[in-house]
């Protein structure tokens, strides 16, 4: 089964750096338990360099997109029709999500 974890990152968000740091710290602290790919949905366009570097430890694909309408949900729908179209499953996580136990996936 091919799984893609889709994490929304708001490129101009006021708390984006804090949320991403917590997401990444807990991702590494509490392993998912199953192989998957990771797509960072960059709502609002490309991430700033310092934001993009944060995600390098995940070997994630960064996917910049406009955030014209629908916000997070439109990003997930567009990802399902685009970069995730050949996956069996997508796990869609908002910017403030984080992990608190092993094997969460």
Count the domains. 1
- Give the class from helix and strand content and strand pairing: alpha/beta
Round the mean pLDDT to the nearest integer and report it. Answer: 94
Helix-strand string: EHEHEHE
Detail the poorly predicted runs. none
CATH architecture: 3-Layer(aba) Sandwich
* % residues in beta strands: 15-25%
> Can you summarize the main beta sheet?
4 strands, parallel
Provide a descriptive summary of the structure in words.
With 105 residues, this protein is of the alpha/beta class. The protein has one domain: 3-Layer(aba) Sandwich (Rossmann fold). 30% of the residues lie in helices and 24% in strands. The chain is built from 3 helices and 4 strands; from the N terminus they run βαβαβαβ. Strands 3-2-1-4 form a 4-stranded parallel sheet, with helices on one face. Helix 2 links the parallel strand 2 and strand 3 (61-65). The longest helix is centred in the first third of the chain and has 14 residues, at 16-29. The chain is globular, with a radius of gyration of 13 Å. It starts with a strand and ends in a 12-residue tail after the last strand. The model has no long low-confidence stretch (mean pLDDT 94).
